[in-house]
Amino acid sequence: MNKLFTTIFAVTVSCVTVASLAQEIKGDAKAGETKNAMCIGCHGIKGYQASFPEVYKVPMISGQSAKYIVAALNEYKKGERKHPTMRAIADSLTDQDMADLAAHYSADGTVAAAQPVKAVKEPSAEVKALLNKANCASCHGATFSNPIDPSYPKLGGQHADYLFVALKAYKVDNNPKVGRSNAIMSGMAKQYTNPELKLLANYLASVDGDLKTIPQKKFR
Question: Which of 133, 198, 211, 213: CA 20 to 30 A from 57?
Fold first, then answer.
């Protein structure tokens, strides 16, 4: 019995140690800048539009939080976000690659000096009611650029058409190529009609935020 307990304890400690090491992967922004060749063709061109599953501007990721970028890439890799191109790219990345890219993009274009927090743009009564319905600010922050957890995305100033496509994706079930399987966000998104989601997306896009598109300085 003691031998069995010792074995179980050793395996448990080993698993915890592996998990801890995984969490401690540190991203290198300089290394990330040399690994972004597959990213810059879409995310490094202002106004660039994707055509799947519909035409929309690709999201701005410069200034997004590093933990969110890593979380999103892992969701593509696991198939929790169903997008064939992004899944293929995520599949090619190691955990260190993801951490390095996230470090690069989270720092890209940011200003070193702390900026004063701006008052968030006041929504219309209709949009305010929609925001309160799912209590969006409780996770994404009062300004929608200061989420309560860095693994949640900053939304303020993001492209409206991208936000609309992303929000709709949480409502899709049992489609092998389209959809996002996040239980919390699925529950939230399914409370709204698509026209309501578009109103939310348009408002969030109009709010000042940290997100930018930083064009590639040079091609290597």
Answer: 133
Gap between the Cα atoms of 220 and 151, Å rounded: 31
Rounded to two decimals, the pTM is 0.86
The domains of the chain are located at: 26-110+120-206
pLDDT digits (tens, 9 = 90+) for 136-185: 999 999 999 999 999 999 999 999 999 999 999 999 999 999 999 999 99
